[in-house]
Specification:
Elements lengths: L13 E14 L16 E11 L2 E7 L3 H4 L1 E10 L4 E4 L1 E3 L11 H8 L4 H6 L4 H10 L2 H17 L2 E7 L6 H17 L3 E9 L10 H18 L5 E5 L7 H13 L3 E6 L7 H8 L3 E4 L5 H7 L5 E4 L1 H6 L8 H6 L5 E2 L13 H12 L3 H7 L2 H5 L18 E4 L6 H4 L6 E6 L2 E5 L2 E2 L3
Parallel strand pairs: 1-4, 1-5, 6-7, 7-8, 8-9, 9-10, 10-11, 11-12, 12-13
Antiparallel strand pairs: 1-2, 2-3, 5-14, 14-15, 15-16, 16-17
Helix pairs in contact: 5-6, 7-8
């Protein structure tokens, strides 16, 4: 979309979108800036401010009564009234399996009855249940279902969403899923980040020879995904009954050769070396980490690998314990949180709900949860330089909330307080509904 109508004049920034006279803007005065830099958890509240943007980038933040003096308001500028509202950075959901089809409520009942994740898989449930459904339906139906979920995520304030493949486990269906992600990118103005996860599970036909499946992924699938530029990341489920450390290493290293940045599902069910491998290959993030112990936490410290915790999953699976966020924070790690929305092990989707679970289950403070779900989650997608904070020069991704305090996001569990969503300087949602072209 080309929104540039009038060029800015020299001397002061021009604006074609202004959020005017906010009660409060939530800022991060000591942001984490990447490997080797300190992790800051401070929150600052700026009151009675306006935020001006030009072509999707924040160009000015300051007292509302100085806006007209310090900013060139272009003729086409749109004003969003901020009175009574608080601005936070748009949420970044750095780990989702949003493209899928089918219903697995039966497995939910099995879990309530006491069956474990691995027992459900052994009974024919789990990932393969969804794989069979996704293989059957066409791109358009997948797109329609995923669009509804994405709109729900936006309603909860998400302005960046990562989406994985992984319910195909054959090349045709994996590409179909990634094509659906491309369709979503074309339809929605928020930032959508595609991840190839052909190594999500081992199909039944390869159970006796999983290395042959790894060969297929490395020799045929990854080259095709890279050739058609269908993904930015390559993720592997490094876990018992999935991919061992050596298989995971091979898949991630092959992805690197083809320009796909590595991610890894690690320590969700067992500790088997996934964290060490994440550090070894320079993974952008290591996700889940439910079982990660002190040794693994120390390994992550200073590595640049973003520990992305998924409290919705450990809650949904009724795990007796959750990822040790407090130990990670105390060790200086830039902890991120995400939804892990998927059809089997986590149906939570709204960012506000994940904020609540981060506080209740991971014992994070409101400020820690907010930074983890915005700035640090952006780093988990290698977007930390321009996304996830309200600062001049960053993307104008904002969620405006109706609340006496931003801390009520997690406190008011399940109550959506999002009023307006702005993504890349485009008003995406208001109280009147979505504004999708």
């Amino acid at each position: 979309m080309n929104r540039r109508v009038a060029a800015p004049k020299a001397g002061k920034p021009a604006a074609n979108l202004v959020v005017h006279d906010l009660d409060c803007a939530v800022r991060f005065p000591k942001p984490y800036c990447g490997k080797g830099t300190p992790v800051g958890w401070d929150i600052r509240e700026d009151h009675r401010v306006s935020i001006a943007g030009f072509d999707g980038v924040i160009v000015w933040i300051g007292p509302s009564d100085r806006l007209s003096e310090e900013v060139q308001i272009l003729p086409e500028c749109r004003f969003v009234e901020g009175a009574g509202l608080t601005a936070i950075p748009g949420f970044v959901d750095a780990h989702t399996h949003l493209v899928y089809a089918g219903d697995r409520s039966g497995e939910f009942e099995m879990r309530i009855a006491g069956k474990s994740y691995l027992e459900i898989m052994a009974a024919g449930g789990g990932i393969m249940n969804t794989v069979e459904t996704v293989r059957r339906i066409d791109e358009e139906e997948l797109f329609e279902e995923a669009s509804e979920r994405l709109m729900e995520a936006i309603e909860w304030g998400a302005t960046t969403v990562e989406i994985k493949s992984g319910y195909g486990l054959d090349l045709e269906t994996e590409i179909k899923m990634l094509n659906v992600v491309k369709m979503l990118q074309a339809e929605f103005p928020i930032r959508i980040v595609p991840t190839f996860m052909g190594a999500h599970a081992i199909p039944p036909e390869f159970k006796k020879n999983p290395d042959k499946f790894v060969d297929l992924i490395c020799r045929e699938w990854i080259p095709q995904v890279a050739k058609y530029q269908l993904a930015e990341f390559n993720d592997v489920f490094c876990e018992k009954k999935a991919f061992d450390v050596e298989q995971t290493r091979r898949i991630l290293m092959t992805g690197l050769e083809y320009g796909l940045k590595p991610k890894i599902h690690a320590d969700e069910i067992t500790v088997m070396g996934g964290v060490d491998l994440a550090v070894e290959v320079g993974a952008v993030s290591a996700d889940h980490l439910i079982c990660t112990e002190r040794k693994g936490i120390n390994k992550l410290a200073g590595s640049g690998v973003i520990p992305t915790l998924l409290p919705g999953t450990s809650t949904y699976l009724m795990e007796p314990h959750h990822a040790n966020a407090r130990a990670m924070i105390e060790a200086g790690l830039p902890v991120a949180i995400a939804s892990d929305h998927n059809p089997g092990s986590c149906q939570f989707l709204g960012a506000g709900l994940i904020q609540t679970l981060a506080m209740l289950q991971l014992r994070m403070t409101a400020g820690e949860a907010l930074i983890a779900g915005t700035l640090h989650a952006a780093h988990a997608l290698d977007l930390g330089d321009d996304t996830g904070a309200i600062e001049i020069g960053r993307r104008m991704d904002l969620a405006l909330i109706v609340a006496d305090s931003w801390k009520s996001i997690g406190y008011r569990a399940g109550q959506n307080q999002i009023h307006t969503v702005i993504a890349n300087g485009i008003v995406v949602m208001t109280p009147d509904g979505f504004e999708l072209e």
